[in-house]
């Protein structure tokens, strides 16, 4: 007689061991291993897909065209000769016969080198004033303890709300009372310290750890020694940012020099370029050449200080 009772559980166990394990998606694989779900995209942080790269580069090209396009068009116009029509419906971007004749016409029409010298003098005074006075004011607000410090800081913040045109009459009256009307020093005086630059230096000095200041005080360092040996080396990038902003602001300023200056020999370049416009006719090629001449110093200053500029933008304190 055959015993079937003992073999049935074994067969049942074998069937159970061989039976596939169902997956959560309904798919099964032999041996009980589950199949990875389909249709799910694995996300890897920090890695851009080809589509994202294309979109980013397209946006960069559009922004580059908007910002650099007018400059390149002015440069192209300044290099076009008199025989090339710039008013046609389909103007050419690349000059057919490039020439520097328009730049020579600018030098013959106005004393461009004298105007450049006047603008450089005003810009140098403003840059020096902002570096010195904004640094001292920012250090005093950030690192020194004295009464009404917060009140003074609030006044600096409040001046940012006022537009420059709101105080331009009072500035002119002050400059005139000082006997600096029709003088380049009178042009540079209001811009020798800017509230925004003071706040930039205040923020840069505030990022320096308090422990370094306290250690210097314990070693017997006074305020000027802390400024010279501790604070200034840590904010060189911000100083470069202030220098660039001050130079560009003084170089490009048009309204204030127009109000203060009357003598033709004292005009800055931005004001002097208006003499390129004639009463009955205007040569756009010559005006484009004048704007390129005014742009060159700004490009040179930024090219020289760009390394410090980006360092100042990223500056967040003392690096270990």
Q: On the 0-100 scale, what is the average pLDDT?
A: 82
Q: How does the helix and strand content classify structurally?
A: mainly alpha
Number of separate helices: 14
Question: What is the global morphology?
Answer: globular
Gyration radius, to the nearest Å? 34 Å
As laid out across the biggest beta sheet, the strand order is: 1-2
Poorly predicted residue ranges: 1-19, 24-28, 316-320
Span from first to last CA?
A: 89 Å
Features:
mainly alpha; disordered C terminus; two-stranded antiparallel ribbon; 320 residues; disordered N terminus
Task: Summarize the model shown.
With 320 residues, this protein is mainly alpha-helical. It has helices spanning 7-18, 50-78, 101-109, 112-143, 149-159, 168-177, 184-188, 195-206, 210-218, 223-234, 236-252, 255-260, 269-272, 284-314, and strands at residues 21-22, 28-29.
């Amino acid at each position: 007689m055959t015993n079937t009772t003992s073999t049935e559980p074994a067969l049942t166990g074998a069937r159970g061991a061989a039976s596939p394990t169902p997956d959560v998606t309904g798919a099964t694989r032999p041996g009980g291993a589950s199949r990875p779900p389909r249709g799910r995209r694995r996300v890897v942080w920090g890695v851009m897909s080809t589509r994202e790269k294309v979109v980013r580069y397209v946006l960069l090209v559009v922004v580059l065209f908007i910002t650099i396009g007018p400059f390149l068009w002015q440069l192209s116009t300044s290099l076009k000769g008199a025989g090339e029509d710039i008013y046609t419906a389909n103007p050419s971007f690349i000059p057919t016969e490039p020439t520097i004749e328009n730049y020579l016409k600018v030098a013959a029409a106005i004393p461009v080198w004298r105007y450049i010298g006047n603008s450089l003098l005003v810009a140098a005074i403003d840059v020096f004033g902002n570096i010195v006075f904004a640094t001292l004011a920012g250090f005093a607000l950030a690192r020194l303890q004295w009464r009404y410090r917060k009140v003074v800081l609030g006044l600096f913040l409040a001046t940012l709300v006022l537009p420059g045109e709101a105080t331009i009459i009072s500035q002119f009256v002050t400059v005139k009372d000082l006997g600096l009307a029709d003088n380049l020093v009178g042009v540079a005086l209001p811009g020798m310290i800017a509230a925004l630059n003071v706040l930039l230096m205040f923020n840069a000095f505030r990022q320096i750890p308090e422990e370094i200041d306290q250690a210097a005080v314990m070693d017997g360092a006074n305020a000027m020694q802390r400024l010279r040996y501790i604070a200034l080396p840590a904010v060189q990038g911000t100083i470069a940012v202030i220098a660039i902003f001050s130079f560009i602001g003084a170089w490009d300023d048009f309204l204030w020099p127009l109000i203060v200056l009357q003598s033709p020999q004292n005009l800055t370049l931005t004001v002097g370029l208006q003499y390129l416009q004639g009463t009955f006719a205007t040569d756009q090629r010559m005006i484009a050449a004048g704007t390129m001449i005014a742009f060159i110093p700004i490009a040179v200053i930024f090219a020289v200080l760009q390394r410090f500029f980006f360092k100042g933008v990223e500056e967040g304190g003392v690096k270990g």
